[in-house]
């Protein structure tokens, strides 16, 4: 029997009983639990096989709830929250002492966002506690943008995927932290850098692959298919190199009429970056299940959401 269901009351009951529910958001599906339930939070880490040093994002129903989660809100954080919540932006701020260490991996900061999905906003309004929710995928693999992706990963581990349809934005939220009250991007994501800068002024990007990164989602190889993946500006040359193999190709809008390709996915025929972003992970899931020898992905134009897509594709490759 499928665990995918639209029943919000069932989700309320499960979450209240310290169990996990996969929830829809506009970015990717999350694996959610009560932030105050040690049992639920531990099972998030166990289910995902996620290391405990990697902190979780707290999901709240409205900007007003922020005061109960964080102890200090820099002026630019307030501006950003007012401009983009509900939406695909996560803020990392000084936490209230009530936020459990398990959520923040012992840090004195907490990541928080108001997701922009009607089903999950309704769920959050009905619950007396916020939800911790990392992306609903095993650690290191491709994030889910459809209920079926989550079901494939976790059908033996959880009782419900709350069905909210396909995610409209399709990659994870943009994470913004603060140093001396100035915003810094920890993770590029579904909200374009240019949009953030229009509200907050120039922001620094600290999206590096460091050994001890500020946002551990920035670890080198992440968001990765199990099929060898190559990111290239010259995909034709790459395809030639692998001739004779089963090749999958992922492009922005280019239609390669080459016989040596087993499967080609064009993310947006009309060259719409938002459409391409929303389809990216579904395409990667699909390509990863075709018994291909290699996936060749085309590098995107390096601005707007293209910058975020390139970041994810880069992390999906073996050698970078
Ligand atoms: O779009 C999203 O953000 C999705 C949906 C479900 O909301 N969630 C998501 O969660 O992508 P996750 O756990 O896969 O990624 C959360 C990232 C991790 O890279 C984590 O290291 C970072 O947020 N993070 C969490 N708390 C942090 C903190 N206090 N300081 C710095 N980074 C933090
Ligand atoms: Mg994740």
What does this structure look like?
The chain is α/β, with parallel strands linked by helices and 320 residues long. The protein folds into 2 domains: 4-205, DHBP synthase, CATH 3.90.870.10; 229-316, 3-Layer(aba) Sandwich (Rossmann fold). The chain has helices at residues 8-16, 38-48, 75-84, 101-104, 118-126, 147-154, 193-200, 235-241, 273-288, 305-316, and strands at 4-5, 21-23, 30-34, 57-59, 89-94, 109-113, 131-132, 161-162, 174-179, 182-187, 204-205, 229-232, 247-251, 263-266, 294-298. The strands form 3 sheets. The chain has a 9-stranded mixed β-sheet with strand order 2-3-7-4-6-5-9-10-11, sandwiched between helices. Strands 12-15-13-14 form a 4-stranded parallel β-sheet, with helices on both faces. A hairpin with a 6-residue loop joins strand 2 and strand 3 (30-34). Helix 1 (8-16) packs across helix 5 (118-126). Threonylcarbamoyladenylate binds at residues 25, 27-28, 30, 54-57, 90, 92, 104, 107, 109-111, 115, 133-135, 172-173, 175, 177, 186-187, 214-217.
